[in-house]
Amino acid sequence: MVAYTRRNGDEQQASAMLRHRSHLSDVVHRVQDLIDGRFTEALPLTKLAAASGVSERTLTRLFVQVTGMTPLRYQQVLRIERAEHVIGHGATVEAAARAAGFQDARMLRRLRARPDSGQPAA
User: Fold this and answer.
1) How far apart are CA 39 and CA 83, in angstroms?
2) pLDDT tens-digit series, residues 93-115
3) d(Cα 107, Cα 80) in Å, to the nearest integer?
4) In Å, how far from its chain's centre is CA 100?
5) Can you tell me the distance from the alpha carbon of 9 to that of 23, in angstroms, rounded to the nearest whole number?
């Protein structure tokens, strides 16, 4: 049984895990599976490329081609969504940043302020 990440009734149901999966690239799906399961960890491009069986350059090119972002940016979007979820449940920005895998809240704040933060337009 496949169960995608779902949110409660107050939050949008669309997540990055769902928005960026409408492609047919097995290589990118394998990498997305790895990132989805371990997005709070450091995932070097060399490790992702080795797991997918292609070079770093090929992985980056394919990933951008089918998702519109790099593997690192995809991981950051997942982290931002997790942090937003935790903040929405009353946690501080600092606690949310740690829960999402950021080393400090400063990076979370910087990424949230970006116009392409991965959040759907309201």
Assistant:
1) 12
2) 999 999 999 999 999 999 988 87
3) 10
4) 10
5) 28
pLDDT at 15 over 80: no
The pTM of this model reads 0.80
Instruction: With cut-offs at 50, 70 and 90, classify the pLDDT of residue 88.
Output: very high
Amino acid at 84: E
- Nearest-angstrom CA–CA distance, 62 and 71: 10
Distance CA 81, CA 24 (A): 24
Asked whether 55 and 49 are in contact (CB, 8 A), the reply is yes
Other residues' Cβ atoms within 10 Å of the Cβ of residue 51:
15
- At 79, the amino acid letter reads R
Q: Name the nearest CA neighbour of 72 among 29, 99, 43.
A: 43
Q: Do you know the residue count of the chain?
A: 122
Task: Please compute the mean of the pLDDT values over residues 16-36 and round it to a whole number.
Answer: 87
Q: Are 29 and 16 in contact (CB under 8 A)?
A: no
